[in-house]
Amino acid sequence: MKTLVINCGSSSLKYQLIDMNTENSLVQGLVERIGIEGSILTQKVEGKDKYVIEVNMHNHKDAIKLVLEALVNKEHGVIKSMEEISAVGHRVVHGGEKYSHSVIIDEEVIESIRDCISLAPLHNPPNIIGIEACKELMPNTPMVAVFDTAFHQTMPKEAYICPLPYELYENYGIRKYGFHGTSHMYVSQKVAKVMGKDIKDLKIVTCHLGNGCSLAAVKGGKSIDTSMGFTPLAGVMMGTRAGSIDPSVISFLVEEQGYTMSDIDELLNKKSGILGISGVSSDFRDVLSESEKGNERAKLALDIFHYKVRAQIAAYAGIMGGVDVIVFTAGIGENSIVTRKESLRGLEFLGFRIDDEKNDVRGKIQEISTEDSKVKVYLIPTNEELMIARDTVKLVKNN
Ligand code: ADP
């Protein structure tokens, strides 16, 4: 059974074709600059040359058409016909309060995703466009929506209600939703498996540190708190996002310094975080190398980043009444040796020590705490696409 996983951004589309009998990813592809001059599709298949198509794609339908062509391409593809794709799993960023699980996509589901547009104006519209384009091009293939917010729907009210007038929650749905749920779920389940433990018996802090960063407190397999909030802007500092700050900074900038709300939006989402502090880049690699060369602002950006992550890990260990395992994942979590060490510095009182030799690793499953540590620390590469494909197969089979 081959499942196509689609993740549509505003001008990009990531895809994978996964053979669910073996759970092997057969193809990984990326379409960039959809609707912009210079659209490009890049597809990777193990054992074959990289396949690149540069042709203008006006919209997501054009892009998906090209993806399907690339998949069946005689020389560069992996399937003979589209009929071999038995289901499509779509990543959808916001499912609001309605979806605590993945669902088979029908008209009602599309409408509900549309209803959540005001909560995720940048993300849900391209997700819907991707779903509709697939529906048109592959009308008989079942499709499933997997929501970034779903895993966090188990949070208790004390974690998700904002301390604002309660009517704002009732009238506008203002609350913490949390994001990266598919990743937090995948790595928490995976680490339990690797440790040979039942997830029901574990208190886990998962640290998803990529361009966007969030942490989650996962107790007994359920998310009980997470650092992102009403939108993916809240929580720890990120590549270009500020994370949580005193909201009065906004009224100060608007009223005293003449900023508009759209300036503020741009400032908090695109110009802050690692980029804003370092003045170098939002890419962690650039900032690490500048810091090594003695750039003080780059070093400060890293110090703040590690401090925020450290404080969040400690908070989650606190609310769970302890922690059994801390997991690092995503681009920075999987690759930055310094980040894993520095984010945990001073937290050894929780019951672990880091083994520097074991921590000297990138992108593979690895325990990085010493053998005698009571609390374990792991690097677990995330695999949101596999999680989406698993949910897709499960739902399609039971339908
Ligand atoms: P996204 O949230 O877009 O999926 P990723 O999970 O791919 O992002 O993470 C991207 C981040 O990971 C970037 O800041 C990048 O610099 C960082 N990263 C990738 N490789 C390394 C590395 N070898 N060392 C440090 N950081 C890395």
From TrEMBL:
Pathway, per record: Metabolic intermediate biosynthesis; acetyl-CoA biosynthesis; acetyl-CoA from acetate: step 1/2
Which protein family is it in? Belongs to the acetokinase family.
Q: What does this protein do?
A: Catalyzes the formation of acetyl phosphate from acetate and ATP. Can also catalyze the reverse reaction.
The protein's Enzyme Commission number: 2.7.2.1
Q: Any idea which UniProt keywords this protein has? A: ATP-binding, Cytoplasm, Kinase, Magnesium, Metal-binding, Nucleotide-binding, Transferase
Keyword presence, ATP-binding: yes
Positions binding Mg(2+) in this chain are: 7, 384
Q: Which HAMAP family does this UniProt record tie to the protein?
A: Acetate_kinase
- Give the signal peptide range: none
Q: Which CDD domains match?
A: ASKHA_NBD_AcK_PK
Which residues of this protein are catalytic? 148 (proton donor/acceptor)
Q: Does the keyword Cytoplasm apply?
A: yes
State its cofactor.
Answer: Mg(2+); Mn(2+)
UniProt-annotated binding residues for ATP: 14, 208-212, 283-285, 331-335
Which Pfam family name is an example for this entry?
Acetate_kinase
Which organism was this protein described from? Answer: Clostridium sartagoforme
Cross-referenced PANTHER family, in alphabetical order?
ACETATE KINASE, ACETATE KINASE-RELATED
CC cofactor note = Mg(2+). Can also accept Mn(2+).
- According to UniProt, where does the site described as Transition state stabilizer lie? 180, 241
Subcellular localization: Cytoplasm
Q: Which protein, by its recorded name, is this? A: Acetate kinase
Q: Which domain of life is it from?
A: Bacteria
Enzyme class name: transferase
